[in-house]
Design brief:
alpha/beta, seven-stranded parallel β-sheet, four-stranded mixed β-sheet, 11 strands, globular, binds nicotinamide-adenine-dinucleotide, binds magnesium ion
Length: about 375
């Protein structure tokens, strides 16, 4: 029986992780859950999966939840302290980090220190603190198992291979709902358009990040840390059908790819059972009806999420944190329809230009850079409702 903790259990990745647990009750047991504010769903999850501990962000929600589950043997905790307590629970063997945002950094670090393997969905952790996380994981003999579909694909392609023989990583992208469009088009797109992802069903923030291609930029930085390659050895390839989830080119010219239907349950399940494969119900690729697999070159001048990410990654230090924090802040305003689509790029760029980089930032310095970014944006931009 593998005991798992899930941070972000009420979200897109979290609920799909629980679906896998539901199909593997003999092999998987939930020991800890954590969510932001959806205590109704969390209550249902507590009743179904019977964890020892459950964390919610606000103490007032925790108090309500305590009353809701007073007939059960579960400890309800709150705040960052509670999140960390859920992450490091003695029984956890593996922690699924499916929380959204930089709030995932500290509990992930605490879990690594406590010797828990990490099934990592929260990409912000590696983007901002990759230099700390990878080093710490090695020191604590902890595995970082990627959940992001592209990184899982690369991880699968590297099974049994020597990562020193990687020539380059070919990170695939769907191109999002605005693939092939120009800047003039992007200047007038609305929230509802950005939320229509052609292939994947995901949380709202990451869906907008796919439309700006900031998501792919974050994934380039994530890949760099996970697989120990230089940014110049990661090439983004647009593959509009999302059939190829990523590829690795080796020094002899061989290219290995992982293909499948777009279903996050595959990478989640692969991380939970690694190195074993298990049956996963669902659609299979049908090569009789799959007419073609296309490839395009992304346009970094239009989808500046990509070019700004490479710039942040190349400069390094605290700049990836600023890139990520500025994007988090801007996307939250875009989701409230208080800024326009292209403002997201403008906000990121302004912050990156104004920031004074800190080399090898500590966790405190990363969090300070995040705070600086939010304050800088607040001081420069007015956020009116646009409708
Ligand atoms: P989501 O918005 O659907 O879910 C986020 C989860 O985090 C929710 O359970 C929410 O309650 C929880 N959360 C938010 N703030 C919290 C807080 N303060 N304390 C505790 N919990 C909190 O997001 P998602 O789409 O599931 O994405 C989660 C992470 O996985 C992100 O980092 C995303 O980039 C990454 N990811 C997602 C997908 C996908 O298909 N959805 C794919 C690859 C990577
Ligand atoms: Mg992805």
């Amino acid at each position: 029986m593998k005991q798992i903790g899930i941070l972000g259990s009420t979200g897109s990745i979290g609920t799909q992780t629980l679906e896998i647990v539901r199909n593997h009750t003999e092999e998987l047991q939930v020991t800890a859950l954590a969510a932001g504010s959806n205590i109704e769903l969390l209550e249902q999850q507590i009743r179904e999966f019977r964890p020892r501990i459950a964390a919610v962000w606000k103490e007032e929600n925790a108090a309500t939840l305590r009353t809701m589950v007073r007939d059960m043997d579960v400890r309800i905790v709150s705040g960052m302290e509670g999140l960390i307590e859920a992450a490091v629970l003695e029984q956890n063997e593996i922690l699924v980090t499916a929380i959204v945002g930089m709030i995932g950094i500290q509990p992930t670090i605490a879990a690594i220190r406590a010797g828990k393997d990490i099934a990592l969905a929260n990409k912000e952790t590696l983007v901002t603190a990759g230099h700390i996380i990878m080093h710490l994981a090695e020191k604590c003999h902890v595995r970082i198992l990627p959940v992001d579909s592209e990184h899982s694909a690369i991880f699968q392609c590297l099974n049994g291979e020597n990562s020193r023989e990687i020539d380059k990583i070919l990170l695939t992208a769907s191109g999002g709902p605005f693939r092939g469009r120009d800047t003039a088009f992007l200047s007038s797109v609305r929230l509802a358009d950005a939320l229509k992802h052609p292939n994947w069903s995901m949380g709202r923030k990451i869906t907008v990040d796919s439309a700006t291609m900031v998501n792919k930029g974050l994934e380039v930085m994530e890949a760099r840390w996970l697989f120990g390659v230089g940014l110049e050895d990661i090439q983004v390839v647009v593959q509009p059908q999302s059939v190829i989830h990523s590829m690795v080119q080796f020094q002899d010219g061989a290219v290995l790819a992982q293909l499948g239907t777009p279903d996050m349950k595959l990478p989640i399940q692969y991380a939970l059972f690694y190195p074993e494969r298990q049956f996963l119900p669902g659609k299979r690729l049908d090569f009789d009806t799959l007419a073609s697999i296309d490839f395009e070159k992304p346009d970094p001048d239009v989808f500046r999420g990509l070019s700004l990410a490479y710039q942040a990654g190349r400069t390094g230090g605290s700049l990836p944190t600023v890139f990520n924090a500025a994007n988090e802040f801007a996307v939250a305003r875009f989701l409230e329809e208080r800024i326009r689509f292209l403002d997201i790029y403008r906000i990121i760029e302004e912050c990156m230009e104004a920031h004074k980089k800190v080399e090898h930032p500590s966790v405190d310095e990363i969090l300070a850079a995040e705070q600086w970014t939010y304050e800088y944006i607040e001081s420069r931009w007015k956020f009116e409702y646009s409708h």
